[in-house]
Amino acid sequence: MADSTNTTVTVLGLGAMGQALAAALRKGDRPTTVWNRTPGKDALLVAAGATSAPSARAAVQASDLIITVLLDHASVHTILDPVAADLAGKQLLNLTSTTPDEARELAAWAAAHGIDYLDGGIMAVPSMIGQIGASILYSGSQPLFEQHRETLELLADTVYFGTDAGFASTYDFALLSAMYAMFGGFMHGAAMVRSVGVTAADFAERAVAWITAMAQGLPAYGRIIDSGDYTNPVQSIAFHKAALDAINRASRETGTATDLVAPLKNLLDRQVADGHGALGFDRTFEELV
């Protein structure tokens, strides 16, 4: 059956992301039912034409496609286990942040109850939903994905990675780890320059340009890591160890805690101690797998 504006959708969970997803569905004229464990979060959505369900069971019964945007894996079971019989024969899209194995467990649970299951990782903040730049990564049921692709594209750009329900989650958290490391590095740098009177806002202007320039090196890093050949570095691990040693000393001199940079220094120290100091910094990947 082709996707259309007649596709009925239920959104379970009306935190900031759930509200953004439901609003995008209504903007796309999809009949949308909403429910939240704590009442009072659906007024704007109802004003936009959504239907407020009095219970999770009523919300599930109202639509063919059910989207969960809940706190965590345990919350998904807390809400869905009691209504599993009502979900039988329906389609479930889980956009709750769940680990790869948690996503696979939910897929197995869904299959055991006759529920078609698709898992997704949202690569966006709520304000980006429905806008250029937002994307959602999917894995699990290909028929569900293909049938509702038009509806899913109301939310964000779509990328489908195959039938392994845990794949999208793995990719999601891998990208988030890069994001958090970047944000953490920025905060560490902002703390350092405060010691000489520079505001975080001023530091951010220079940090954006610098990080953007350095990010251009990631494709080369990727190719080297995939080749496994770290023997022709532009700058060796030993070189970068000296830099990290100095950054840690400078951090202490400026009164900046080293919680964020010390672990990377430890990785480089270990590689030098193990005789890998002449290899490229890319080899640090091997310490993580």
Would you give an account of this structure?
By secondary structure, this protein is of the alpha/beta class. The protein is 49% helix and 12% strand. The chain has 13 helices and eight strands. It has helices at 16-27, 43-47, 56-61, 73-80, 84-87, 100-112, 142-147, 149-152, 167-194, 200-215, 218-227, 237-253, 262-273; strands at residues 9-12, 32-35, 51-52, 65-68, 91-94, 116-123, 135-140, 157-160. It has an eight-stranded mixed beta sheet with strand order 3-2-1-4-5-6-7-8, with helices on both faces. Strand 5 (91-94), helix 6 and strand 6 form a beta-alpha-beta unit. The longest helix has 28 residues, at 167-194. The chain is elongated and about 60 Å long. The two termini are 43 Å apart.
Based on CA atoms alone, the radius of gyration comes out at 23 Å
Strand order of the largest sheet: 3-2-1-4-5-6-7-8
| C-alpha termini separation | 43 Å
Class by alpha and beta content: alpha/beta
Round the mean pLDDT to the nearest integer and report it. 96
Task: Please give the largest β-sheet.
Answer: 8 strands, mixed
Low-confidence stretches: none
